[in-house]
Amino acid sequence: MTSDADLKDLTRQIFEARHQGHLDVLMSFLGDNCIFRAAGSRYLAPLTDPVVGSAALRATMRHFIDTWDMTALEILDIRVDGNVALVHRVGHMRHGTTKFDTEIMDKMTFENGKVVECVEFLDTLQAASLLNLATISAAQI
């Protein structure tokens, strides 16, 4: 079993790889059948559709790195309970030319040192608006 300190360190390494845009390093932390999804209504698909498996995750992570600038998000806290890390992040993001403030919580489940599931809790209305899946005014972003 991995210690709390080890899982916290591993979690920080994952987000550092994401911030640096190192896709291969990021993928090395994910299990072969890892599931990633944003929590939310099925009506916000494809935003909330689960992404499963290495090939799909690689394509999705490449897209995220290329289109969602999260380098100004800071980790406020990491809590570990057994094999689950809860990561609270806050700060500025950019999608395309739109910059905005946000807050995100990630629930990452680990097995044998690899992420097997990541559920991201974010402002789905804000994200859906940026992806043209929902409409809100620019002042509300």
Automatic annotation (TrEMBL):
Residues 12-117 form the SnoaL-like domain. SUPFAM superfamilies: NTF2-like (SSF54427). InterPro entries: NTF2-like_dom_sf, SnoaL-like. Signal peptide: none annotated. It comes from the Bacteria. Pfam families: SnoaL_2. This is SnoaL-like domain-containing protein. It comes from Rhizobium grahamii CCGE 502.
